[in-house]
Amino acid sequence: MPRRHPFVLLALACALAGGAHAAGDARDTRDDDAHRFAIIGHGFTDGGDKHLKQALRDNDDGDVAFLVVTGIKGVNEPCTDKLYQKRRELIDDARRPVVVLPAGSDWTECRNSAGRSSAVERLNRIRELFYGEADTLGARKLSVTRQSMSPRFRSYAENAHWSVGKVLYATVNMPANNNHYLNEAGRNSEYEDRLVANRFWLNRLFAIAKRDKLEALVLFSEGDVKAMSQPTGLRALLRAAPDNDGFAEPRRLIVSLAQKFRGKVLLVDGTRVRAKPVIEWHGNVGHLAAGADALEVVVDPAAKSLFRVDPRKVEAAPAAKTGGIKAP
């Protein structure tokens, strides 16, 4: 066997070390992109402060990149500043970043002492208490971009987006009770204004995802837009949605934008249509009905599905008071 020169051996050793280091970097990058997030449904808030506090603690471990709390109060709880402030304090105590998504039970059904709707006033109060900062809630902060940074949509601070790895996450205020569409004539100004804001927001989110060549876009809303039932092509032209369908426009827009996006689009909402939460896929559009429970989703870029619900981390909301507005 020919004797190798010391310099050759040294070069070979360096090359092997460099290759190992590169492999380690690739593994670290993959591990950095792999993460999980938790969803806490508003069924826990209907069970009282104790249950929400426990749910936050149970899903607040170091493996969770962030938590999304879908609603700050249950449908059977009062629409008071005192309750709103108490929930804000509980959420602030969480160790991980927390994003709050407004639910219909937080504002759409609220009424004043005269029995009149106070929905808009209550929504504005929630915006003041929960969306005044440019960061998430919780002890550890995560920077978010709010739609309110745009002068035209200064009121819509609850719509926010942030990124983890190659996934863009965003909240869209679309409550479960038919997107707060009211059948009474002349009563839909809030809905119509928010529809314009959400249209701009969705177009913006997909533009960012395409520009940055992201692997996925995850949209959190309380209401189910029923994107899986949206017809495409000629069928979409022949089949018109009912005039009173509050999700018709965002559904058509999301499906249309998703068809032009090469990555995956996962829609996560606060409704429940199955006994166990599962992700259903139709093309590149997925749907997860998280319901009123707490669960965790694993995001693994090395996996073909990219997203999966962790069956070990699905926790049922308290059975005593499982309130919340159901999807129409």
Detailed description of the structure:
With 328 residues, the protein is α/β, with parallel strands linked by helices. The protein has one domain (33-313): Alkaline phosphatase D (PhoD) (Purple Acid Phosphatase, chain A, domain 2), CATH 3.60.21. 34% of the residues lie in helices and 18% in strands. It contains 9 helices and 12 strands. The chain has helices spanning 6-33, 43-46, 49-58, 81-92, 104-107, 119-130, 189-211, 234-238, 248-259; strands spanning 35-41, 64-70, 98-101, 145-146, 160-164, 167-171, 216-221, 264-269, 279-282, 285-289, 294-299, 307-309. A 7-stranded mixed sheet has the order 4-5-6-7-8-10-9, with helices on one face. Strands 3-2-1-11-12 form a 5-stranded mixed sheet. Helix 3 (49-58) packs parallel to helix 4, helix 4 (81-92) runs parallel beside helix 6 (119-130) and helix 7 packs parallel to helix 9 (248-259). It starts with 5 loop residues before the first helix and ends in a 19-residue tail after the last strand. Mean pLDDT is 85; it is low at 5-30 and 320-328.
